[in-house]
Amino acid sequence: MDFFEFLDTSVTPYHTVETLKKMLASAGFSPVGLENVAGMACGDSFFVERGSALIAVRMPRNFSADTRVRLATAHVDFPALKVTPNPDKECAGVRKLHAEVYGSPLYTSWLDRDLGYAGVIAYRHNEKIMMKAVRGDKLFKIPQLAVHLNRGVNQDGLKVNPQTDLDVLWGSAGMDAPHFEDALRRELSAGEEMLDFDIRFFDAQPASKGGFDDEWVYSGRIDNLSSCHAIAEAIVDASPNENDICVACFFDNEEVGSVTREGAGGNFLESVLQAIWLSGCASKSPVPLSAALERSLALSLDVAHAEHPNFPEKHELNHAPILGNGIVLKTNSQRRYASDVMASARLRDLCSRAGVPLQVFVTRNDMPCGSTVGPTVSARLGIPTVDIGEPILSMHSIREMMAIKDHESMTRLVSSFFC
After folding, report:
1. Are 411 and 290 in the same domain?
2. CA 55 – CA 69 distance, rounded (Å)
3. Is residue 345 domain-resident?
4. How far is the C-alpha of 147 from the C-alpha of 301, rounded, in Å?
């Protein structure tokens, strides 16, 4: 799927999973339940879904004592404003919706933007509880206070209180704008009773090219849909490996800590791998899963901080990635990233063989860095892991920026990893 189409379609984690499922199904992957994974045969390709997380697997042609796992991981979530259970408010002739902050967005970037809403509705139909993905077709806004009413804003900076300043303007009071739940009920058919919802606002402006030579991408959700797209494209285009299991894992909830059943801190990935090892095909291998994982490799994909041309002092001088100069190896002595010397060496070798340019990011000693799913996956499975990413600017803004060349490099790297 075209990268821009992927960005525009994947407006919530749920929609990202739906998009991934379509990509995989079109490439011959079969949807299976976790209880059926043990029945998969050599050469099979399948995917397992758990709510807003998904794992895709290409089984090897043959299992042997040398079989390893080639694992690539990313996360499907991104900072957002999540509609609260009772969101409706009214003030100054306007009906508003109150949202709860998800993750760590740059608050100011959400002001004066065209916002859409999307997510899922849980409903009951014929005594069954089901879930439906929805996406509204209206636009909304959080208007910024005019400079005339905030005279010092350009000198003192804009401070946003997430409790009081991020209510979304929904419609005119007294007009036809329904209460929020009533609007959601219109998405259901006769006989379907809404029970709950998970709805989020998102940047409604489509992804676009930028820069004088159209070398950049401007879009919402680049963190971390760029990684998801690179992995999905790679595993879709791959063929079953002769001996190794190729696994693409798309976790949710990285932005809030990963300790959920859909997150990297849950047992989803471990359960799928254990089920694979119970399959008739894998039972031919005399090596236990733990031993196979010890000599396997995981690529943990998440975006990296590119050097900001207006703030170069925010970066460590010799480890400041540049837009368009290649993918980024992320290392940290406090092990906020999983990369160790051997995993990093294997990545460098892989990049060399694939002809992919590589940069290295190390944060300043006086500035703590973020983290990824890499350390969690590595510790839980005992699999050597390296943290990598595409360099971007405006990370956690509602609209981020990256170089097209870097995304092409990342896709090429993961494709080489899976082949």
Report:
1. yes
2. 13
3. yes
4. 41
User: Six-digit token pair at 178?
Assistant: 């329904």
Give the Cα separation of 394 and 223 in Å (integer): 10
pLDDT for 220-256, tens place per residue? 999 999 999 999 999 999 999 999 999 999 999 999 9
Residues contacting 181, CB < 8 A, separation 6+: 194, 197
Domain shared by 275 and 414, yes or no: yes
Whether 187 and 224 map to the same domain: the answer is no
Report, in angstroms and rounded to the nearest whole number, the Rg of the chain calculated over CA atoms: 22
**What would the pLDDT profile of 17-73 be if each residue is shown by its tens digit?**
999 999 999 999 999 999 999 999 999 999 999 999 999 999 999 988 889 999 999
Domain range for 402:
3-78+220-418
Q: Supply the pTM of this predicted model.
A: 0.96
- pLDDT exceeds 90 at position 12: yes
The 8-class DSSP code of residue 266 comes to S
**Residues forming a β-bridge with 46:** 30, 57
| Peptide bond between residue 224 and the one before it cis (omega within 30 degrees of 0) | yes
What angle in degrees, to the nearest 10, is found between the helix axes of 222-237 and 13-26? 10
Q: Are the beta carbons of 408 and 396 closer than 8 angstroms? A: no
What pLDDT, on the 0 to 100 scale, is given for residue 195? Answer: 97
Mean pLDDT (the chain, rounded): 95
154 and 191 in a single domain? The answer is: yes
Amino acid making up residue 61: R
341 and 388 share a domain?
Answer: yes
Nearest-angstrom CA–CA distance, 239 and 132: 32
DSSP 3-state of 166: coil
Q: What is the torsional sign of CA 163, 166, 170, 174?
A: positive
CATH code for the domain of 86: 2.30.250.10
d(CA 31, CA 15): 17
Closest CA to 234 of 23, 13, 5: 23
Query: 239-267 burial, b for 16+ CB within 10 Å, e for fewer?
Result: ebbeebbbbbbbbbbbbeebebebbbbbe
Contacts of residue 414, defined as CB under 8 A and 6 or more positions apart, other chains included, come to 72, 230, 231, 233, 234, 235, 299, 301
Put the strands of the sheet holding 245-251 in their side by side order: 30-31, 45-50, 53-58, 245-251, 69-75, 297-301, 385-389, 327-330, 358-361
Tell me the CATH number at 414. Answer: 3.40.630.10
